[in-house]
Design a protein that fits this description.
heterodimer; A: five-stranded antiparallel sheet; 7 helices; B: mainly alpha
């Protein structure tokens, strides 16, 4: 038995099954991301004046990722247009580029995460607070780890300005000068914490939103890659169905890109 | 709504982002803490915004035979 409207649109809705399905799915996605965006806004509005951190993120890297995603949305639509014009080889080229852009995005995001997991705030017994990097760039260290591993001291390279969350002094953009490396005894440390999701509310919501978004990018890349690798067979068997599936995956991809278009200014600029 | 329509919407959103980012860059440059990098953001994203508008027109022309639905 053949499933109706798998390829041809239904007369009353004007949609084929997959398109109706993806729009329903995207509606649920809008609710998911909408709830998280609302949480971000409420947390930010509710924060004490001056307490919300600024300049923790690397704007050039975020801008590069935005360019990568905008370009990928162009390649994904060009892949679909190529199929509409019966150009399978061009479709494969554009589809491959889309997957490569998706991987580039994920690699850049991983670099940003790594940067946060190796960036520390240390509070000393004398009340002094510094942000900077530990020699060797270890990830996710804390005071408990130092004590468990019986590490007597760390060599800490602080940023020029200490204890500030100001954009220019925080040095997240990699532009600020660093102080001299200092040896700090573990016994003098009260708190050692990297800029992970547990560090403050801003980073918690930042990691939640961007990690969820990155998972969507990975999922989209897997689907687009699957369509690419099976397209030869599919094209011979049912070219119209392949074109429809490419359109549906493209709709999902555009949604993912659109989420980033909102995420970038909200998290990096404002 | 087809991929063509969503793509047009996406290009409009990207253009607005580019122009907004450009405004952000210029306003930071003109503030007391302004740096050369802020001016670069302003000029670069204004150029990107213009590029996106040009691309949008090209896209609409290229796919004029494909429906928006």
């Amino acid at each position: 038995m053949e499933i109706p409207y798998a390829v041809q649109p239904r007369e009353d809705t004007g949609l084929y099954n997959a398109k109706l399905g993806i729009w329903l799915f995207l509606a649920s996605e809008v609710m998911l991301f909408g709830a998280l965006f609302s949480s971000y806004i409420l947390l930010r509005v509710g924060a004490a004046p001056g307490a919300w951190p600024h300049g923790l993120l690397n704007i050039p890297i975020g801008t590069l990722n935005t360019l990568v995603l905008i370009t990928s949305s162009v390649t994904v639509v060009m892949a679909w247009a190529s199929l509409k014009m019966n150009q399978l080889s061009r479709f494969k080229m554009y589809q491959t580029l889309t997957v490569l852009f998706a991987l580039t995005f994920v690699c850049i995001k991983s670099y940003e995460y790594h940067d946060k997991f190796t960036h520390y705030e240390v509070v000393l017994k004398d009340g002094k607070s510094m942000t900077g990097h530990i020699e060797g760039s270890p990830m996710l260290w804390n005071l408990t780890k130092l004590n468990v591993k019986k590490i007597p001291s760390i060599t800490f390279t602080p940023e020029a300005a200490h204890g500030s969350h100001d954009a220019k002094s925080e040095g997240a953009a990699g532009a600020s000068a660093h102080g001299e490396p200092t040896k700090i005894a573990t016994s003098d440390i009260v708190k050692l914490e990297c800029f992970g999701p547990f560090h403050n509310t801003y980073l918690a919501i930042y990691f939640t939103l961007t990690a969820l978004h990155a998972l969507h990018v990975i999922g989209g890349a897997i689907v687009i890659g699957y369509i690419l690798f099976t397209s030869g067979r599919w094209w011979k068997k049912n070219p119209e169905q392949l074109t429809n599936r490419v359109e549906v995956s493209g709709l999902f991809w555009h949604f993912v890109d659109l989420v980033w278009i909102f995420l970038f200014p909200v998290l990096y600029l404002l | 709504m087809s991929l063509k329509a969503i793509h047009v919407l996406f290009i409009v959103a990207s253009t607005l982002l580019a122009l907004g980012f450009s405004g952000w860059g210029f306003s930071h440059y003109l503030s007391s803490e302004g740096a050369a990098v802020d001016l670069a953001y302003g000029i670069g994203s204004a150029a990107a915004g213009i590029g996106l508008v040009v691309y949008g027109c090209y896209f609409l022309k290229k796919l004029k035979n494909i429906s928006f639905l």
